[in-house]
Amino acid sequence: MRILLVDDHLLIQQAIAHMLSAQPGIDVVGGARSVQDALVQARLHKPDCILMDFSLPDGTGLEAAQAIRAEFPDVKIIFLTMHEDEDKIFDAIRQGAQGYLPKHITAHQLVEYLRALELGEYAIPPQYTRRIIHEFAHSPLNRAGSQADAANLTPRELQVLEELKRGATNREIAARLVISEQTVKNHVSQILKKQHIKSRHEID
User: Which pLDDT band holds residue 80 (cuts at 50, 70, 90)?
Assistant: First the structure.
């Protein structure tokens, strides 16, 4: 996994780079300290994953993520930040981030989350997952399901559901989420079952 680090604190960036570089299969390809630099480095190195701080000198990690994903939609972005308020967590996930981690996690935990990311999972601690599901459960939903139904969807199923609402095919969803088409089919099957509908065409 090729990783780009985006953090305006050079000491933190260097410490994370040193730690991750010692892990087999992980290659830290570069570092950036601003929104503009993040985009430049993403173009230069084309990383598989970006560890992104939320607060940057010239903007936010959300702005950097939006700009980068507009050019590289398959890149996986994980926010690694001191901010733990719900609005920032929800904004990051809505922006398409595959993870949101607090900086107080251990080095071992960070590596474990990155390994899970390689397997197609989200890098989100359990306490954040509960908040995300609760938020979606209390958000207005379309006729495809009730609030109770949404609460039963996993974070990955919620992301697949959003892609379905946009009319994406299984192949397009697989490419965007970097998972197999069979995995997409399995998620779609579970979504239809949990939403109590018979066909993906009923999703509006």
Answer: very high
pLDDT in tens, 114-141: 998 888 888 888 877 776 666 665 555 4
**Region 140-202: CATH code:** 1.10.10.10
Tokens matching residue 131: 């908040």
Distances (CA, A) of 105 to 65, 95, 96, 113, 130: 22, 23, 22, 10, 18
What is the CATH code for 2-124?
3.40.50.2300
Q: Give the residue extent of every domain in the chain.
A: 2-124, 140-202
At 57, list the tokens: 């000198």
Q: pTM of the entire structure?
A: 0.65
